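Data availability (excerpt). The following record was deposited with the supplementary files.
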Amino acid sequence: MQFGIAPIYWVLINSVVSFLFLFIISKILGKKQIAQLEFIDYAVGISLGSIAAEMSINSEIPFYYFLIAMAIFMALALIIDIVGRKSTFLKRLLKGKPITIIYDGKIDYDKLKKSKIDVNDLLSMLREKSFFDIQDVAYAIFETSGELSVMPKGNQKPIVAEDINQVEIKQAKLNNILVVDGDISYSGLSEANKSEQWLLDKLNFKSKEELENVILATYDSETDVINVHTKNNN
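Predicted structure:
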């Protein structure tokens, strides 16, 4: 279908109408922050925006066709939301379910793959939650919204006033990342003033090929301990 170039007044009127209609739809569907949007919400939002944009400049198709299309997308979103509330199975089918990536301080490699993120993504998301060491994490759950929910280990929970006199505060430090997804991080080794051979000896490995099963290894210089997360941790 060939689309004509809409005159200025048509663009102005249709833009205002589409904006108002989108505003009404957003009120009906409810408010959500960007981080709370699930895949269905995201797909519906993009579709509605595309339809509204097309409505603003396309003078070949009657404007009410676009309003009908937006109303259909709104209705489908409402139906999915209502069905999801009534049926847990359908909700999981349509919107997915949370995935526990870290369990009792260990990375679950299979769940990590299922979540479609890699180790570097996981580490970045943990840092955003103010966790710079996986050993401080009891559980990490990848939510359907794409957010990471983190439960700290007992000794890493926030201090309350009654704990102040009982706690010895230690200097904060970062552990060195030595292995990521089976590859040696030579910058991490350099920061720790260690060699590749030292790493292999510390892990009781004879060659680098044995690192293939290691998804993450970090070094605590204070305790001289390497914390290793492997693909078969679970």
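Summary of structural features: The chain has a mean pLDDT of 78.
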